[in-house]
Amino acid sequence: MTMLDRAQCAALDAKDPLAFARARFDVPEGLVYLDGNSLGALPRATADHLSAVVRNQWGQDLITGWNKHGWVDLPRRLGAKIARLTGADQDEVVVCDSTSLNVFKLLSAALALQPGRRVILSDTGNFPTDLYMAQGLADLLGRDHRLELVTPEAVAGRIGPDVAVVMLTEIDYRTGRRHDMAAINRLAKAAGVLTLWDLAHSAGALPVDLNGTGADFAIGCGYKYLNGGPGAPAFLFVAKRWLNETRQPLFGWFGHAAPFAFETAYQPKAGIDRFLVGTPPVLSMAALECGLATFDDIDLIEIRRKSLALGDLMIRLVAQECAGAGLTLASPTDGGQRGSQVSYAHDCGYAVMQALIARGVIGDFRAPNLMRFGFTPLYVRYQDIWEAVAILKAVLAGAEWRRPEFSQRAAVT
């Protein structure tokens, strides 16, 4: 195989049809940012927009901003933008709450549709908060529901008549392994099982086809590939066929059919709005609106193409430059089975990652030993991958990670 060099990576950038999109982000000079799978970079428009919302809309118009500036419509307006990215109809997605709360709401709604079934099926690679919510809900219901975990490879074979809901994250947060959403949805439908998908590592990173594959429910976050900022609001999807048959357990005033009638008895709104709970966080949603605007005029097929190319490049360069350095590829080599990240195992992965961060290459670490490198095609360049691998090689060859300060665990890894 021909050896790759820095010039070849720069040449790829020169031909990149998404290269223009990097200008939409404020990426610090001299920094290689490969952690958009945890927190997206700051869109250049966000600071000015937030300032305008704070100083002009809130500052000058005060309470009238709910009507004058359409604050009340933000959950649906942003939901419609996310619908385009996830293969949903505009009236099937709403922005609200956090991923954890949305898992609770949708899982509760799904279980209520399956009164004779008790198993919530998930896999050992699912994100812990989803599993915690399922455990808590099962305890709360007190009807012998149980969460059953199998390996990712065993999910398809376990789908059966006792399963109420299959709850999966499409892209494994540790390894980047991708579930076959279409195949799982097909098997589930044949068995009378509902599906609940977590799109935290999918939405904005690759084309998602919720309706085309027959998904029932989905949730996702706004702060990763959607670039909405730290703790950005989440979103949820309910397929149209279930919209008026479902009830969620959290009866809040924004989910009421007539919130400003101030009635004492709860009556849910029709459609997706019944999954709203409290007052929308306007400032957070204003930031997310800028994050979603970074996808204007962007072809999701091009995003996927570049994402795969970036991942393939990193795998090839690490094999070329870091052979024998103690790294083990933890992600699928086949791009079709991988999301927009590549993970490597190392016995001292946390310390190695801290050494990389000190050198200006930002990825992250997931216990027990995985270093994650995420690729956001809108602002990550091919030459960034070259630079990251060159610094990784230097850190490993010079054993820089052995410095004591790199082994001191921070609160967030």
UniProtKB/TrEMBL annotation:
Its EC number is 3.7.1.3. Its cofactor is pyridoxal 5'-phosphate. Keywords: Hydrolase, Pyridine nucleotide biosynthesis, Pyridoxal phosphate. Pfam families: KYNU_C. This is Kynureninase. Pyridoxal 5'-phosphate binds at residues 99-100, 127-130, 169, 198, 201, 223, 253, 279. Homodimer. GO terms for molecular function: kynureninase activity. Catalyzes the cleavage of L-kynurenine (L-Kyn) and L-3-hydroxykynurenine (L-3OHKyn) into anthranilic acid (AA) and 3-hydroxyanthranilic acid (3-OHAA), respectively. It is an enzyme of class 3 (hydrolase). The modification N6-(pyridoxal phosphate)lysine is found at residue 224. The lineage of its organism: Bacteria, Pseudomonadati, Pseudomonadota, Alphaproteobacteria, Rhodospirillales. Pathway: Cofactor biosynthesis; NAD(+) biosynthesis; quinolinate from L-kynurenine: step 2/3; Amino-acid degradation; L-kynurenine degradation; L-alanine and anthranilate from L-kynurenine: step 1/1. It catalyses: L-kynurenine + H2O = anthranilate + L-alanine + H(+); 3-hydroxy-L-kynurenine + H2O = 3-hydroxyanthranilate + L-alanine + H(+). Belongs to the kynureninase family.
